[in-house]
Specification:
- With 132 residues, this protein is α+β, with helices and mostly antiparallel strands.
- The chain has a domain at 6-94: Double Stranded RNA Binding Domain (2-Layer Sandwich), CATH 3.30.160.20.
- It is built from 3 helices and 3 strands.
- It has helices spanning 45-54, 75-94, 107-127, and strands at 10-14, 30-36, 64-69.
- The protein has a 3-stranded antiparallel β-sheet.
- It is elongated.
- The model has no long low-confidence stretch (mean pLDDT 89).
């Protein structure tokens, strides 16, 4: 489990976009997390590489990783949601890729496949016109 050092991440509250009535233009409830990926020594290097590959759109040209959350009505709830999503993304990037084991089809599945092919072939051969 990777511990996210909250003091090293810039948390910024911004005004949410879109509809929302009278309150939307006054209250900054949308939360934006930002941190420099190169300086994030709390994320192992191989995890950083996979994090960038999976979330390339969340990386700025300056090498800053950002994440926004605006699903909730309060700033605190959006901040918690943003940190939870960041933890999920890091955990996903840290889990190794499960390699597929090659297997052979069973004898019965092979037999069923061939029987189906014979059935289809017979069906199509019956459609052909016969020239006497």
């Amino acid at each position: 489990m990777i511990v996210i050092p909250r003091p090293r991440i810039l948390v910024k509250a911004v005004v949410s976009g879109g509809p929302g009535g009278q309150n939307v233009n006054k209250v900054a409830t949308k939360v934006e997390l930002r941190f420099r990926l190169d300086d994030a020594d709390w994320i192992p290097p191989h995890v950083r590489v996979r994090l960038v590959a999976a979330h390339r759109g969340n990386l700025t040209a300056d090498g800053e990783f950002f994440l926004t959350a605006s699903a909730h009505r309060t700033r605190r709830a959006n901040e918690e949601a943003a940190f939870e999503r960041l933890a999920e993304w890091i955990t996903e990037a840290a889990t190794p890729i499960k390699r597929r084991k090659a297997t052979k089809p069973t004898r019965s599945s092979d037999r069923r496949r061939l029987e189906g092919k014979k059935r289809d072939s017979a069906k199509k051969s019956e459609r052909r016109s016969r020239d006497w």
